[in-house]
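Figure S7 source data.
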Amino acid sequence: MDGMQVDTIGDLHGSSSSVRETGLSFRSPDAGIQHTLRNPISCRGIGLHGGLPVTLAFRPAPVESGIVFRRTDLGTEVAAQFDRVIDTRLCTVLAPEGRPDARVATVEHVMAALIAAGIDNVIVEVDGPEMPVLDGSSEPFLFLLDCAGRVAQDMPRSVIEVLKTVRVEENGAFAELRPNRAPGLSLALSIAFDAAAIGRQAYTMRLSEQGFRSELANCRTFTLRSEIEAMRAAGLARGGSLDNAVVVDGARVMNPAGLRRPNEFVRHKMLDAVGDLALAGHRLQGAFIGHRSGHGLNNRLLRALMADRGAWRIVGWNGRARAA
Ligand SMILES: [Zn+2]
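Tokens for the predicted zinc ion complex:
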């Protein structure tokens, strides 16, 4: 257990007798109490598609405020919610209703880091249309969040429990959410690429903070060399380089240092799924199964789940149903 969690226990004991009486262990951020950051923190980086420098800041936020992205250059805000997603072609893009110009792109790696680090309430400020890509993974965001520190808030978390299977499909790809007895979110994902360096890969895990940190967080986004020219011609991937993406050319990985994991590709796709599913607005209790699913299917899956009022319910950390 790290030092931050010791601080967290101290805060809980100082502030909440009702919480203390539950007897729940607070050593894990999965334990069911809302958290925010102890301190604000910021960094500077470039956007993957625009290639422009942006400043990112994480700021503490009150209980029940959720994750909110704020465009400091425009004065707009958008909640990190599945129904605020306006584009999923290359990354997941949020925008306030009726304000596509106030978009915030490439939120998935940040969302994955926030949910894995147990941060429920935070303002994510950015002074441009896209998150900085940093190294193409979630690890630098986790580092920032760790430096900021985490503090427990005096309110239990709500959880969305999947009650029946919901599935979306497209061209042989699919994504599914199923009920699951195990607490939290379990994930199983497979991918299939013609490029021999990727090929077929599959990965399964039950999401936990430690599991995310050790198995997924440093796995980078990737692209095919053949697609780079097309993206550049469309004005995209201007900030992309071997410093922030794995580039594959057939059987070859073009990055001089190679891969961080033999199956870094499927692990990154799972990282993306964790980030995309975090847009449900609360943690999920269920099992995610995906085959060749990307941002588009992940978002369609959440929309299909939430549109079916019999497919989910809101429960407290103790599994008791709550009024939705
Ligand atoms: Zn990604």
